């Protein structure tokens, strides 16, 4: 406790000194740490109460629905900033003000980045947790009640399990996959079963819900994964698939970012056009039926530079249609309560 108290007192003293400086003098601060402390207490982006003034919060959830074909428009579900999202943002603002912790993370990331991927570094340091949807948003998208329960959830690319926790209460059994060894360790700490990325889609493996959040644009073989998701769903089961738009796929390989070996045919420039293209050019030909979709912010905890980071996510709820994947042209393109009906 005394160590924490001492650190807090150091920051308080620094702030008192900085607040006595005029604006011109503050611009001449050369010490990076002092400059960061000053920015945190003068730049309005660090003021939690000014969130909606400093960031386009309404845009996080909105889209021009008229840009979608008529047969898709009624499937869009409008979401908004809710309590659980607010709580995540509160924690992000708080953590970004932990100056000494953030300094340690920044220093460690520089050296560890030479031998580890960004994801693995974050897992080791316990930083950079993600947020895609709240429990209530999950229920709204699936059209389920608070008491709804299914047997088995598979969460592909589950990261540190923070997103899995939002929906875990609705499942009796949870299986996860993750490439990063340190993230596998974090998942184990939370009590989740972790399987090898080549083991989840066996001939006898069936899941009521498969969550594939922001993995399609960060994996080497997205078409193969969609094919495996299709054949691994239990009768009546659903998949939750999300990706960041605009679509800019890459694959983490240590400190490098490589192009995926399988390419998805996503066209257009706007969020709306790319989302519609993903539905028509990828999901439907893959043998899925769209149940609903929405736009959400893909949030990440911040650091010394920003209180949090945000990307535009498109989230799709799909079922495997009864015909299976019979679209040979699409499949060939890749070379370039145990059963709960929702």
Structure description:
By secondary structure, this protein is of the alpha/beta class. Helices cover about 40% and strands about 20% of the residues. The chain is built from 15 helices and 10 strands. The chain has helices spanning about 1-20, 25, 30-40, 50-55, 55-60, 70-75, 85-95, 100-110, 120-125, 135-140, 160-165, 180-190, 220-230, 270-285, 330; strands spanning about 130, 150-155, 170-175, 195, 205-215, 235-245, 250-255, 255-260, 290-300, 310-320. Strands 1-9-10-6-5-2-3-4 form an 8-stranded mixed sheet, sandwiched between helices. Strands 7-8 form a two-stranded antiparallel sheet. The longest helix is centred in the N-terminal third of the chain and has 18 residues, at about 1-20. The chain is globular. The termini are far apart.
The fraction of residues in strands falls at 15-25%
H-E string: HHHHHHHHHEHEHEHEEHEEEHEEH
Strand order of the largest sheet: 1-9-10-6-5-2-3-4
Which structural class is indicated by helix and strand composition? alpha/beta
- Give the total of beta strands: 10
Global Rg:
22 Å
* Major β-sheet annotation: 8 strands, mixed
Mean pLDDT: 84
Distance between the termini: 50 Å
* Estimated helix fraction: 25-40%
Secondary structure layout plus pairing:
Layout (H helix, E strand, L loop, with lengths): L1 H18 L3 H4 L5 H9 L10 H4 L2 H5 L8 H4 L9 H14 L2 H14 L5 H8 L4 E2 L3 H8 L7 E7 L5 H6 L3 E6 L4 H9 L3 E2 L12 E7 L8 H11 E12 L6 E3 L2 E3 L12 H13 L4 E14 L6 E13 L7 H5 L10
Parallel strand pairs: 2-3, 2-5, 3-4, 5-6
Antiparallel strand pairs: 1-9, 6-10, 7-8, 9-10
Helix pairs in contact: 8-9, 9-12
């Amino acid at each position: 406790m005394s160590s924490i108290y001492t650190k807090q007192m150091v920051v308080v003293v620094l702030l008192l000194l900085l607040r006595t400086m005029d604006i011109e003098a503050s611009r001449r601060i050369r010490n990076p740490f002092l400059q960061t402390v000053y920015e945190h207490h003068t730049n309005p982006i660090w003021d939690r109460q000014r969130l909606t003034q400093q960031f386009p919060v309404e845009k996080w959830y909105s889209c021009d629905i008229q840009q979608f074909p008529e047969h898709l428009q009624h499937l869009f579900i409008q979401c908004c900033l809710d309590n659980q999202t607010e709580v995540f943002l509160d924690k992000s603002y708080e953590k970004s003000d932990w100056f000494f912790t953030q300094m340690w993370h920044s220093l460690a990331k520089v050296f560890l980045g030479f031998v580890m991927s960004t994801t693995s570094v974050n897992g080791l340091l316990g930083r950079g947790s993600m947020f895609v949807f709240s429990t209530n948003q999950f229920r709204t998208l699936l059209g389920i009640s608070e008491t709804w329960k299914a047997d088995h959830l598979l969460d592909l690319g589950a990261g540190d399990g923070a997103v899995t926790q939002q929906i875990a209460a609705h499942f009796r059994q949870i299986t996860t996959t993750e490439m990063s060894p340190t993230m596998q360790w974090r998942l184990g700490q939370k009590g989740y079963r972790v399987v090898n990325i080549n083991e989840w889609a066996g001939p006898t493996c069936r899941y009521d819900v498969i969550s594939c959040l922001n993995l399609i644009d960060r994996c080497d073989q997205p078409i193969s994964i969609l094919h495996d998701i299709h054949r691994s769903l239990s009768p009546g089961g659903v998949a939750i698939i999300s990706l960041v738009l605009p679509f800019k796929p890459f694959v983490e390989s240590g400190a490098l970012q490589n192009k995926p070996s399988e390419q998805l045919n996503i066209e257009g420039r706007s969020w709306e056009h790319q989302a519609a293209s993903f539905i028509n050019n990828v999901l439907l030909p893959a043998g899925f039926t769209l149940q609903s979709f929405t736009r959400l912010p893909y949030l990440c905890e911040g650091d010394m530079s920003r209180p949090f980071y945000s990307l535009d996510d498109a989230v799709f709820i799909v079922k495997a249609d009864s015909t299976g994947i019979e679209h040979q042209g699409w499949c060939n393109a890749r070379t370039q309560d145990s059963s709960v009906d929702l």
